[in-house]
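Hi there,

I know you've been waiting on this one. I reran it after we fixed the sequence typo, so this is the corrected version. Both the input and the resulting structure follow.
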Amino acid sequence: MDMDNKNTAAKSATQDEILLASLKLFSEKGYFNTSLTDIKDAVGIKTTSGIYQHFKNKQAIAEELFDNILDSLSVSIDDIRRRNRNASEQLREIVDLLFNLTDEAPEVVQFLLVVNRKEILPEGKALVETVPFNKIRRVIQNGIKDGEIRSIDPLLAYNYFFGIISHTLSLVLSGVLSKSADSYQSQVWLVAWGSIAKK
């Protein structure tokens, strides 16, 4: 490996470390309570100028985090949609994914569902308008078209369904619900699906 490739790899590794440390700090302390000094210390960089070599500011870090998480979620939803034909099967696997993520990578779900995106990225889209959540809405629209989901406004159906999911996960993340997300998964699925399923 030549010197340029080594430098590029080192820069990429440092960027990843900054993103991971930021994600952890944002989920523990909150975005506004996390300083660049906190991030620098968590990564082990000598000065905050070391962060500026990779990111313009803290908002750019948050934006990159959101983009990475949403891209990953979007790819997972595409895989789920390819494997399953029915809206109920697709939605069930999406719920499984979100509940598993909550147990295995709580900081990701905390950052995605609990952090107020509009405060951090005022110019950014609302979560419901992002690519992966548009895909969830399309699953619901297809379920309505196929007669699997009640014939109601697709956005309302999305809100009924996903509101139950996201609120439950928020309660798990905040500790109000004391068990792992997995222990509530089947109950929550029944309630969320029951709120939109055609009877």
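Quick highlight: Residues 157 and 196 are 6 Å apart (CA to CA).

Best,
R. S.
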